[in-house]
Specification:
The protein is mainly β. It has seven domains: about 25-75 and about 620-690 and about 850-900; about 80-170 and about 260-340 and about 420-430, Galactose-binding domain-like (Jelly Rolls), CATH 2.60.120; about 175-190 and about 200-255, no CATH class; about 345-415, no CATH class; about 430-610, Galactose-binding domain-like (Jelly Rolls, Sandwich), CATH 2.60.120.260; about 910-1090, Sandwich (Immunoglobulin-like), CATH 2.60.40; about 1120-1225, Immunoglobulin-like, CATH 2.60.40.4070. It is built from eleven helices and 75 strands. It has a twelve-stranded antiparallel sheet with strand order 55-54-56-63-58-59-60-61-62-57-64-65. Strands 32, 34, 35, 36, 37, 38 and 40 form a seven-stranded mixed sheet that branches. A hairpin with a 5-residue loop joins strand 16 and strand 17 (about 220-225). The longest helix is centred in the N-terminal third of the chain and has 19 residues, at about 5-25. The radius of gyration is 42 Å and the shape is globular. It starts with a strand and ends with a strand.
């Protein structure tokens, strides 16, 4: 049996994508614009690892972003944090308390008594609390007075704070500052939500008046100076709008009323913590807890701070003290072990005591001690009267009431203890940035055989990466070995963070000779700067990182040799820097145990800390089907496509600073142009293709509770399919098959009601597992030749049984072959057992054929809009947004994106660049029968030489579904690397064919080209005409040719017919890879430009270049055609006042620094010439500089001889050219 999940996968993908489309973006009503401007839409984008193709995460679950109605921005990571407040956002697999049960536990507060109230001790509000249940308010119940905090992961903490109810309430209450972009409580941080909840429970002690006027947007006064903002006794506001009004009025503090008695701190308590290690041996189901402090709240102290020190060895310098404060913490336990219960405070006795007692609230009323007066005038406490069965016959109060008044002693009254815990806080250096990097598109890989690198960053102290001892010889490239890497862990955080601290924890164990400690800590970090080209498809390719990235050493010498101190906690601090990638090893400085699998070190928990907004994040939209209402599955077979016109965006810079009035951190929005340290990069890519991903599984226990699937490779999957094919063939056999054979005749020789269907040819023509059994009269052959005519009986295969009665056993098993030559197929074999596993094939559709990501879009004419440069028309689009920052306190927020769409004015545009051969140059333009001999691919072009080029544009007709595009195009814009001179134009037709089974336009091939007219120059280079006088206008600029035809080029074309335009021109090519880019549009309809695609496309069969990028010959000089006047006179008379310098740079593809400096004859630098482009870097091309004859200080230089030096920085060397310049007056 073979299970195919194709249809389910397709349906799931389509349903999922339909949801993603509606959730991640929307079309406008006309269907010609895609908008992303809602918080919910941004949440449904993907966080894609921008270096590793197959690693991504849902954006909403990364923990990297703040989503509000104003847009999305990176989250700020503070340098200090109370880890209790966000405990519910973390979970882990607890294999200690719930061993073998696969139980996931979420961060929480639990209590042995009154468990429902436990979370109040971690809600950030001092006015809420945990207290023991009434049933446990006794000496016996005291054992249950315990609260445990489970942080949901192990953190590094430097202190634990336990807060009990304050003795007094009141005083000034700080008003929380609401961020401008907050629209709801959910938009705020957990701390701010807690602060709002706390202030809303307080009341104003007096009347609060407005200190200033508050104006509306139209300038009207909504609150005037002196207006009452809060009345005496009025509750403080709890809504965002009311609190924001206090912010706007500048009211930072409000004096509040005291609050009723909140309770007591416990008489005696202890604080214990656990790192998450087991108590005792590895079989224990309990965690080990260490007492880190004890306290008593019997005095006035209500806030207790317990500094933490390492709970394992951390003395690398062997000075007898830990190298740093703090420790790893997963659990905190507060245990109260003493109480005064009902007798906390003696209120008095007799009438005075009763008055004081009755004045107390019910919960504070404690013990009443009833006493009897003895004959000697003494008092004796009355106890309850209890019978032998233990039942109370009389309470103390009842016994007291039975006494005569003269015997009744004074009653003593006590106040009751209210033991309560307001807050348990665990403080540390902020969020652990290395925690489970897969959440935000990160990954880990190790080369060395143990395969568990992510267990070193999973927030569980007992899990670990086994780091076998490493040595230099296990590096890539050592001794000529490219792939010899061992014992190395690579980590990609998925985002670039600002980091200044790393910590490593190891668990004590007897599994290794070092008791779990490593020999030496090797940890290098990188911000992702690439030194060597990387091709990272999955995390398994991380081996390339060793020599592919620029690494910096993060570890000081004290931790590089741990053989003697054997510490199991290490901390390294350094200046705040950008980091994303890490390379970690157990480096044995002695080299004695390198590569030894018997001597691993345990990397149990690696944590990283810093502060600020992430330095680099990148997120992308799901694949967008550009046709409204069309699903992915439908789009596969739809030929309609859309042109990508323009992209628009709104964004702003976000600056974090401390409010000087309140001391709280606030965020301020400013324009991006004010912050060059922040970059917002928006890119697009497009596709027409959906492919299929095949995943193979073998399943066991199908249909049972123990059913499991195992992913296998194609070979193992195919082998199991073959077993099922064999089994099914065996099952299809009849228990007994009987047929009659006759000598070949004109009739039915085998009794199957057919005549002469299987003649003598050695083939089973009728698929009945018999060969040549029914031929024409006179034939000799088939089973009859051996068995003779008669009845043949075949039984279902059995082992060691003659199934076909020929005297042999098991000689012809099921394989589709006549193994024994008796003209019967598979008639005698063994019984086939049913396979124990079943094959399953999962076919998942995925987008393929993506174009490269576009260059980042830049604002056009001061507006955040730009023409989309990704290839189109297309069916699918993806948008990527990257935010970069060089300042940890500044980032960007993107508010909205819009993409304009248009119907294609040609459903298929293909371009091809060629060079005219001598034959082509010699052929008159009016000769409309050019051949392949007239054109060559654009290879080995001489730079600086004016070369005869041809650009072909093949165009199908306009989109038949869009009437507005029916006119097609009449204008071609050809962008050229240098100024071009047009020499002629031909127009014709070309027929195309599609490769069998392909619907992609990239697979269309030109078959036959015919030209029907030629345009010759009639007025210089700007006007061309054909023999009938029809004119084509051509405009040449320094970087383009604009060709305007008198009529549409491609309107009215028949099915399968394409228009063809040949543009001939001369120009220079200065560097390889320069693209000649063509665009078309309708000048009459003011339509958008549509790009002509060239790479891998076929415009005409006359040339086979498939490109618009020429290659150039290597040259000896990169700086050429230098033009520097030898004399100029900067005397201000307007004649020859300026030195204009021009030169050409050849073969340089990327921007490189270039300068022109002026020196006097002593070698002193006098001035720098100014680039005419305003840029101090350039690619290949003609470059201009100018010098006004003034020195760097602004003074006119004296007459004399100077030297002008042109300098170009390249990867291999700096190139220079120098010439003498005379300054005269």
């Amino acid at each position: 049996m073979q299970r195919f999940l194709y249809s389910l996968a397709i349906l799931g993908a389509v349903a999922g994508n339909a949801h993603a489309q509606s959730a991640a973006f929307q079309f406008n009503g006309a269907g010609d614009q895609i908008d992303i401007d809602r918080e919910s839409q941004w949440r449904n984008w993907d966080y894609q690892n921008n270096l590793v193709r197959d690693v991504s995460s849902p954006m909403d679950s990364t923990g990297l972003f703040d989503f509000t109605f104003l847009g999305v921005k990176p989250k700020f990571f503070p340098a200090i944090q109370n880890y209790v407040l966000d405990r519910a956002g973390f979970s882990y697999l607890d294999d200690v308390r719930f061993r073998g049960l696969n139980t996931t536990v979420t961060g929480q507060l639990k209590a042995l008594s009154n468990d429902a109230a436990a979370p109040r001790a971690g809600d950030g509000d001092l006015t809420t609390y945990w207290e023991p249940a009434a049933a446990d308010f006794s000496a016996d119940g005291l054992r249950n007075w315990q609260v445990e905090v489970n942080l949901g992961r192990v953190v590094f903490a430097d202190s634990i704070v336990v807060q009990f109810p304050p003795l007094e309430s009141g005083g000034n209450e700080a008003v929380p500052v609401i961020p401008a972009d907050a629209d709801a409580l959910s938009d705020l941080s957990a701390e701010l939500q807690v602060a709002i909840a706390a202030i809303s429970r307080r009341a104003s002690l007096g009347t609060v008046l407005a200190p200033v006027d508050l104006l509306a947007d139209d300038g009207t006064v909504t609150v005037a100076v002196g207006d009452t903002v809060l009345r005496e006794g009025q509750g403080l506001p709890g809504t965002l709008s009311d609190i924001r009004r206090l912010n706007d009025l500048g009211i930072a503090f409000v004096e509040v009323e005291g609050v009723d008695d909140l309770g007591d701190g416990p008489k005696l308590f202890a604080v214990e913590v656990s790192m998450g290690k087991q108590a005792g041996d590895t079989s224990s189901k309990n965690y080990r807890f260490d007492v880190i402090g004890r306290g008593s709240a019997s005095g006035v102290q209500r806030r207790f701070v317990f500094p933490l020190e390492p709970l394992d060895t951390a003395d690398a310098n062997l000075d007898g003290t830990p190298d740093f404060p703090g420790t790893f913490v997963h659990f905190v336990r507060i245990t109260i072990f003493d109480s005064d219960f009902d007798a906390k405070q003696l209120l008095g006795e007799g009438e005075a005591g009763a008055v004081a007692y009755e004045a107390l609230p019910e919960e504070r009323r404690g013990l009443r001690v009833f006493q009897r007066l003895t004959a000697g005038g003494f008092v004796k406490r009355i106890s309850p009267i209890i019978d032998d069965a233990g039942d109370t016959l009389l309470t103390a109060e009842q016994a007291y009431d039975t006494l005569a008044e003269s015997e009744q002693g004074p009653i003593r009254y006590f106040g009751r203890e209210l033991p309560r815990i307001s807050e348990i806080e665990v403080w540390g250096p902020g969020p652990n940035l290395a925690y489970r990097p897969a959440r935000h598109g990160g990954a880990g890989y190790e080369d060395g055989g143990n395969g568990t690198p992510l267990q070193a960053v999973d927030g569980v102290y007992l899990t670990r990466w086994y780091g076998n001892a490493w040595d230099l010889k296990y590096s890539s490239g050592y001794a000529g070995h490219d792939q010899l890497v061992c014992c190395t862990m690579w980590l990609d955080l998925g985002a670039t963070f600002w980091i200044d601290r790393v910590l490593l924890g190891m668990v004590t164990t007897r599994e290794t000779s070092t008791e779990g400690s490593i020999f030496g800590w090797h940890l290098q970090g990188s911000d992702g700067t690439v030194l060597r080209a990387l091709d990272l498809q999955t995390a398994e390719d991380f081996i390339q990182l060793e020599n592919g990235l620029a690494w910096s050493d993060l570890i000081s010498e004290i931790y590089k040799d741990n053989n003697t101190p054997k510490v199991r906690m290490m901390q390294e601090r350094f200046d705040l820097r950008k980091l994303r990638f890490f390379q970690q090893r157990n480096d044995d400085p002695t080299g004695a145990r390198s590569g030894a699998y018997s001597a691993p070190g345990h990397f149990n928990e690696l944590q990283m800390f810093g502060h600020g907004y992430p330095a680099e994040v990148s997120f992308s939209s799901p694949a967008i089907v550009l046709l409204p209402g069309v699903s992915e599955a439908e789009a596969i077979n739809v030929r309609q496509r859309r042109v990508l016109s323009e992209i628009h965006w709104e964004a702003e810079a976000i600056v974090r600073e401390v409010d000087p009035l309140t001391g709280q951190s606030v965020e301020r929005a400013e324009t991006l142009s004010e912050h060059p340290e922040v970059e917002l990069l928006i890119q697009t890519r497009s596709s027409d293709t959906i492919d299929s991903l095949f995943t193979y599984y073998n399943k066991t226990g199908v249909g049972t509770a123990s059913e499991k699937s195992f992913e296998v490779d194609l070979v193992e999957y195919s082998a199991l399919v073959d077993l099922w094919t064999l089994y099914n063939a065996y099952q299809a056999l009849e228990e007994t098959e009987t047929f009659t054979l006759r000598a070949h005749s004109a009739g039915d020789d085998d009794g199957d009601q057919r005549i002469n269907e299987d003649p003598i040819d050695g083939i089973d023509n009728d698929n009945d597992r018999r060969i040549d059994e029914d031929g024409v009269a006179g034939d000799v052959g088939g089973p009859q030749a051996l068995r003779g005519p008669g009845v043949v009986t075949i039984t279902k295969h059995q082992r060691k049984v003659d199934d076909d009665g020929d005297g042999a056993e098991d000689e012809d098993p099921i394989d589709g072959i006549d193994n024994d030559g008796d003209s019967l197929i598979d008639e005698d074999g063994k019984r086939v057992a049913k396979p124990r596993q079943e094959p399953e094939l999962l076919i998942t559709p995925f987008f393929a054929g993506w174009s490269a990501w576009s260059e980042p879009y830049k604002p056009t004419r001061g507006q955040n809009r730009a023409a989309i440069t990704s290839p189109s028309p297309r069916k699918f689009l993806q948008v990527r947004v990257t935010i970069l920052s060089e300042d940890p306190d500044v980032t960007a927020r993107i508010q909205s994106l819009s993409i304009d769409l248009a119907p294609p004015i040609s459903t298929d545009l293909a371009g091809e660049l060629a060079l005219l051969t001598d034959a082509g140059v010699g052929r008159p333009l009016t000769d409309l029968l050019p051949t392949r001999l007239d054109y060559d691919p654009p290879l080995n072009v001489e730079p600086l030489r004016q070369s005869p080029y041809v650009f072909f544009v093949r165009a199908a007709g306009p989109d038949p579904n869009a009437p507005e595009a029916a006119a097609g195009f009449d204008e071609i814009l050809l962008l050229t690397p240098s100024q071009a001179r047009p020499t002629g134009i031909r127009i014709g037709r070309v027929t195309v064919e599609e490769l069998t089974g392909s619907s992609s336009v990239s697979e269309r091939r030109a078959v036959t080209t015919t030209f029907d007219r030629a345009y010759m120059p009639v007025a210089g280079d700007s006007l061309f005409a054909d023999s009938d006088g029809n004119q084509v206008a051509v405009r040449s600029t320094r970087d383009s040719l604009q060709v305007l035809f008198p009529q549409s080029v491609n309107a009215g074309l028949a099915e399968g017919e394409n228009a063809l335009v040949e543009i001939q021109f001369q120009t220079q090519t200065l560097k390889a890879g320069s693209e000649f880019l063509a665009l078309v549009r309708s000048s009459r309809a003011s339509s958008v430009f549509q790009r002509v695609e060239s790479e891998g496309r076929d415009a005409t069969e006359l040339v086979d270049s498939g490109t618009a990028r020429p290659t150039v010959l290597q040259v000896d000089s990169i700086i050429d055609e230098v033009n520097i006047p030898t004399v100029f006179s900067p005397n201000g008379d307007g004649v020859n006042d300026r030195l204009d310098i021009e030169f050409t740079i050849l073969t340089i593809r990327d921007d490189r620094p270039v300068e022109v400096a002026i020196y006097d004859l002593s070698g002193r630098r006098v001035a720098s010439a100014t680039p005419t482009s305003g840029l101090e870097s350039s690619q290949s091309g003609t470059i201009g500089f100018t010098w006004d004859g003034r020195s760097g200080s602004g003074d006119v230089v004296p007459p004399g001889i100077y030297i002008a030096r042109v300098k170009l920085e390249t990867d291999s060397e700096d190139l220079e050219f120098m010439q003498v310049v005379n300054v005269v007056y």
